[in-house]
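ZP: hey, is the coenzyme a persulfide complex queued? I don't see it on the tracker
AM: it wasn't, my bad. submitting now with these inputs:
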Amino acid sequence: MAHDQETLNQFLDTVSRFVRERLVPLEESVAETDAVPDDIAAEMRRMGLFGFALPEEYGGLGLSMEEEVQLAFELGQTSPAFRSLVGTNNGIGGQGLVMDGTEDQKKRYLPKLASGEIIGAFALTEPEAGSDAASLRTSAYRDGAGYVLNGTKRFITNAPEAGLFTVFARTDPTTTGANGVSAFLVEAGVRGLSLGKNDRKMGQRGAHTCDVIFDDCRVPSSALLGGVEGQGFKTAMKALDRGRIHISAVSVGVAERLIRESLHYALERKQFGKPIAEFQLIQAMLADSKAEAYAARCMVMDAARRRDAGENVGTLAGCCKLFATEMVGRVADRAVQIHGGAGYIADCAVERLYRDVRLFRIYEGTTQIQQLVIARNMIREAQS
Ligand code: COS
């Protein structure tokens, strides 16, 4: 539901201040300790950030997509680990439930996700099924009044903290494709569900991923998302369409932060007797970054508005993800270049952000998957 402009502006101002005054000063220690402090998580709960995109009737803030991307522009102004903590509940870990859950399932879990009492995780990727998500092998066979899950999920964001997993598993062993996949809501702590060691990642320290292993894990029939078999892959794709716009907005936010850091440094740093900002080769890098970040911001706002208006934005979400995540990679690279040697040193924000943003081009669908989705949709449309 759309909020009035004044309420939205107040909320965005509060978040912006929280980011600048509370989160930015903690960036280095979060990277060092690999943990977001509990008091920050508590503040995020109080601000409603665990449920910004979840419906108001279940305790969320019910932001529209256009409102959500504006929030993501703000949350993007600091280490992505902070956003990641609240990202799955509102995104891929909660939206499957919002879009396709039964009323009972929504009532049971959405209020807890919205308040941040539990963390939701999206368990799609497997050791042998990354981009080719439909080839997943985790199985769920019917047994009496429930299902038994077996298989391993990989790189699952927030799995170490999760209270609820949306798990994609094959209920029809006779098909190898998308139609045999169903989604299950599996609570942490059930027998047969275990976690691997936390992955040691290139960046985004403070945000955690690990394997999720199902070994004869028994769940009741009521765990089947929407109560229907064979719909799981579509649920995953719909959640990802939405998530891709959100990640694009975060990419814009981080790019704007990197540009600010670069401009500030270029104005302070003197070489050859004057601030390096006065050299045209530095100006070219600043200008390219500014123009590209602005283009991505406009794309993201447009896709979000169209989604709110009810358009199918699968292609546009792919365009945003492709452009915005590649854009922030280039902006981060230029930011390091503008900082010179200082940008390669670990206590420099741009060094850390350079590593952090590398993930944006990979998760929720690689750049190459976005290219494939965009082109496939174009061809289908032309032929229909
Ligand atoms: N919304 C709704 N339904 C969708 C959809 C979407 N965006 N995309 C596909 N579907 C449906 C299709 O309509 C099709 O249904 P029907 O058989 O009833 O027509 C079904 O899902 C299978 O679609 P498709 O044939 O396109 O599946 P593919 O196996 O060819 O896979 C790609 C398509 C590659 C696009 C998909 O596997 C993908 O997005 N992979 C990347 C996965 C990913 O992002 N992983 C990140 C992990 S989460 S961090």
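AM: back. Residues 122, 124-125, 131, 133-134, 178-179, 233-234, 237-238, 240-241, 314, 363-365, 369, 373 surround coenzyme a persulfide (CB under 6 Å).
ZP: great, adding it to the tracker
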